[in-house]
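Sequence in, structure out.
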Amino acid sequence: MSEEQLRKNVYAALKALQDSLRNYKLGTGSPPDFLVNGAAPIIPQELLTGCRVFSRRNDIIADLPKGGVGVEVGTQTGRFARTLMDLAKPQKLYLLDIDYTPFRKEYVAKELEAGTVVTREGSSWELLEEFEDEYFDFAYIDAGHGYEMVKKDLLASLKKVKKGGYIVCNDFLIWSAFEGVPYGVHKAVSETIADNNLRVSHFAFHPYGYNDIAFVNS
């Protein structure tokens, strides 16, 4: 498919979507917020005090304490696992994913052989529950992006990450422009932070808006 054809298809689909949204609002008198699981709560300003803001997510990873035990919840190809090893320098890193078909072992081949990187396959939140409480120093969450899935990953991570440890969440937004689907990450993370009075420690921008946010477990 050419770029021109893709543009035509996308704009036609957007026009149909916009017409549907407009008609729904005219008919009901309210926006269809169910499409994005409703509005996210406001994160209290006091939980943002001291938050460090970076231009890219790698800077968050480089700022994490070194030498701990980490977990990447959703690894896909394993490329970012390489970044986690290089910048966070954990003594051990667990990779959790429901499907390792896209995974490329060459990214962390030496670490896999040495046992410093360990892969586990299955549902991310169920795999997290298999670890002892407060086992991890940090968790990087980038698995399923639907609201319910993110909530389950976050609830499990709150138990499995040490008090004072870090939980970093990728794709902190409500809509994926490249996939044309809603993301539940923004609401799920905002709820978790606000409901548990967790301090936001880092925020990093992404060129296409797929930003990262990190908070301290307590």
